[in-house]
Task: structure prediction
Amino acid sequence: MRITVNDIKEMKQKGQKIPMLTAYDYSFAKLVEEAGIPLILVGDSLGMVMLGYTSTIPVTMDEMIHHTKAVVRGTQRALVIGDMPFMTYHTSVAEAMRNAGRFIQEGGAQAVKLEGGEMVAETVHRLVSVGIPVQGHIGLTPQSINQLGGFKVQGKTPEAALRLLKDAQALEEAGAFSVVLESVPYALSALITKRLSIPTIGIGAGAGCNGQVQVVSDLLGLYTEFVPKHAKQYTKLSEIIKKAVGEYVGEVQSGAFPTEQHSYKIDPALIADLEKIV
Ligand code: KIV
Result:
């Protein structure tokens, strides 16, 4: 039985912190769930860390569905959220419903995430009313990077701080089950968290949020292009992988791999007979 959006909301009421992490494929999703993550986001960050784009903007629905299916196959208990890509929920509510529906029907996700506050509240309301749970995402919204002028902390002026609070409240009123706060000063996140009854999940938003989300490739030190200030590397898999692959290269070149242990046997008489024929 999978964790539900109600379980996630209850975690806030019980004062339990919510660890959320991205995953993009079967093997990682399995490991992440086995390590105790209840909430997995198939983030459109996969565009950068899995597909090598320079931003999340080129990511398509088909790419997201492909990865979401793999994550769902790798999990049994975690609540899987599909991240709606740029321009798949902006042109009309009908378009947003169709695309969100694909995440649930084709992808097997249990919820979707979309970026924006009051601007997307009507869409969130309609999705929730047809049975699609929605997670909001405000603050630094990477799909608006061209408008925001870079990966900058948000909500630092009185107007911007008030806007974020109103956006968060609009998402709650629209029926979102939680809200991601990205790159928001921690005192503001703490205030927003206090004002909402649904959980806030922070990334670069301080310890006052009800939960935290990280990009798995940052957390494991896999993505080496840049490490955001808010990311904590719990290990450096890139170094471990390069060392292991380097050893493999050396052993293939020297003939040390494969050994008999990694090879399959056949009756020598059969080979001897074959040699006589050819
Ligand atoms: O795409 C993503 O990974 C995200 C998280 C950073 C919240 O949106």
